Amino acid sequence: MRAADDGTPIAGAAVSLADRFRNGDVSGAVQGGTETMEDGSFVLDGAPAGTSTLIVEHPDFVAVTRDVGVRPGAPPADIRLFSPARLAVRLFREDTNRPIRFLLRVTPETGRTTYSHTVVGEMEIDHLPPGPVTVVTYPLDEEWNGRPLRRSFKRRLELRAGESRRLEIPLRGGSTIRGRVVLPKSIPISFDDMMVAVHPPGLPAGQLASAADVLADGTFEFPMAPAGDLVVRLRGWAGDLSVTEAVRVYVAEGEEADVTFEPALSGLRGRVTDPTGRGIRAKMHIRTTGPSSGPWNTIVTDDQGRFVHFRSPGPVLWTVEADGFGSAVLTSRIAAADSTHEEHVTLRPEARLIVRVEDLAGTPVADASVSVAPRGVTVPYALNRQRPLGDGRWEVRRIASGTHSIRVTAPGFAEFSREMRFESGDRRTLRVTLRHVVDLSLSVVDEEGAPLSHTRVRLEPEGEEDADRAPIEATTDAHGAIHVKIPEGPYRLVALDQTDRLDLTGDSGPVEAVWRLD
Q: Which of 26, 41, 57, 292 has its CA 20 to 30 A from that of 3?
């Protein structure tokens, strides 16, 4: 144990070993602890093998918590302790110089601890680790001109070891931003669940942001906005409306700025029916595609299959699903201020598939995951519904007619994939055999045992069900070895016009093998 600045040994530091940190807390000490000797060394006898958390504390240095690996013959841990930094923060009213009650949060970028306190006027935190820290203050129970004062402050500081820093924060009343949201009169929509946020440019939306709801008449107001260059952002989920727009404004200290949002909303209406034209009660998920992708919205048709949806214009992707019918995926382009765009969707009776998942020994794989989707379609909403039947079997419903990609995965097994074509009303079964993934380390040597580096090796599957599996190719490294993860099974090895066979059936890895070439 040594001082970080000059390497001086540190005696009398308390050292203990604990179970590895979980969720920021020590789960339980496993070693009583000791103290460092005059030369800074320490010995913890009986430490369990594996990864534990080492805790070092000394009144003159910053405490250290560090994960360490304990194993026989490992070199001794070399730990440097830093002299602590100190930070005093004072928050006061600029108009009266009166100290106020505020929330203080100091977060070092190194270390596990965030210092959070509710204080009045001033707070000093010692034993901070040197390096960058983020300071955030938020006033409590304060008003300015009869309005609640909600002006957060955030600053990043670089603290040096042994430094004492003082931060004075005057609280100002700020400026005012007023505005309104104007929606097309032809679209019957309210301002419920619409909000406006204000934040400095260059920061993620919401960070350091003040937020205000849009009132029933479409207006909003920020009486305590910070002065300077700002981003004013409108977000809305009013009914099925999804809109996000932003403008930049500059407002001087104590002045006012006006902002108007006029989002170009459009209407999408239509009907979902079966092949006979009868309306279907269906559920649709819709979102804007492209660079300005928005959140998914959900639409439900009425008993006649009709729907009306208002949203921002542009290209959209949407899925349609209903009980007993195959799901559909559609794309549309909605023009700006188009309140008459119509879509007619016809759903056909579903196909169903039962998938039985087992390993090479015929044992059901209980923790498998099965997905079925139209070829070339990837959307986060499941187009088909899967339910487990037990004994490694899954039933997949709502499959539309057409070619679908079937994918089966399970921990420790190689992925299975296949394409199948379905017709409306099909009832199909599929037996899937998953293979364990084998960690293969293969050393290729000549007849005298010398490694053959940079040699191309091909592993060709030879099982009865491997006709459609591509061979695996790899090149040996400087030590004549290749390390690959491959599905279990028999393989034909090919290298330098010579062949051999390798049977990995029943192996779940790792496997080490040597192939000697003439």
A: 26
